[in-house]
Amino acid sequence: MSDQNKPLAFATRAVQAGTAPDPATGARATPLFLTNGFVFDGPDMAADIFAMRQTGFSYSRGSNPTTAPLERRIASLEGGTGAVAIGSGQAALLVILMTLLESGDEYLAASILFGGSLGLMGRLAKRNDVKPIFVDADRPENFERAITPKTKAIIIESIVNPSGEVVDIESIAKIAQKHKLPLIVDNTLATPFLIRPFEYGADIVFHSASKFLGGHGQVIGGAIVDGGRFDWKGDSRFPMISEPWPDYGNMVLTEKFPASPFAVASRLYGLRDLGPGLSPFNAFMILTGIETLPLRMKRHCANAHVVANYLASHPAVASVSYPGLEGHPNRALALRYSPLGPGSVFTFAHKDGEPGARRFLKNLKLFSHLANIGETRSLAIHPATTTHKSMRPELQAKAGVGPEVIRLSIGLEDTKDLIADLEQALAATA
After folding, report:
1. At 389, which CATH number?
2. Fewest C-beta in 10 Å: which of 127, 341, 357, 404?
């Protein structure tokens, strides 16, 4: 292969993929198009765009000239065939589930997930009869044991929120492929810089772009990425992807858009019908944030390693859940899938239980006590009373988010300052 035909490196694509100088003005930065609608050349053009017979912009809920470059960039970084930018990571998961599943269907989900995902799954099970079957992801064979004729998908996280453990994506993907089930991976904590799930057999990837992709903690956004590999054609289990859409002239997405039919289904149903479109301003901010993703993730991982090692040796700390530590049971998987580091979100348990955890959070000065993760600044939260509060105490304990546990998201500050703040907060007695 000549140098001219070699794929661009990740860092280059993080800066340039999906964008080009604006043809109207020559602007090199992607312009911010703050417009609801777009003027059509005539009624035929309007009808053709709405019917998906012609590409083009019609209304910013479905797509926008600022949002589209973000979609192309995320798809490029993940190695997917198409992407849909959406209002939030929570909206991304909702649209994925609603596009794939109907009332009475079941899907398998890792038993330890982001608290918001667990809350949504529980609500959909109760109100819409879309039932999650929770599986211990530490042993991939558990997924195969749980599959029934009602099972239509498998959902996992690449790096688990909040424990920081890395999941054996490839082994679970082989099980999914054997049973012709799409494997869906929440890649928020890893980002495509650390782990690219499609390389291990995943079919759909999604993100909360509010976290590491944007990195600045200023806007909310999400993304759905189609891997383009799952064989949806003729599969009656997934009618929105494999069967005709009467309101689009009986268009079949696997025929019209064979490279990324799931992404198109997510756009038509998820954005046009359900409506959680991404603001062009938020798209602009996330697109800009991604330009520094490789630099930031290296620093995030390096800082997290230093902080986790410090906490592991502190007398007030009972345990640290960070796979980068020597002797951690998840270390081998972390090194295999994420050799650059297992991200920068992890938990630790205070020896004084919940009173110690609350005291610690109250006395932090440099760390911000808030519920986000993946920002340039370092953050801390008490999952048992916030992000995972909907879980029963016994399930919190099993998930590693008991009342003594604190979640940290390590930012880009100097580690000396971070450790000094942790030290004084851990030493506080009131």
Report:
1. 3.90.1150.10
2. 127
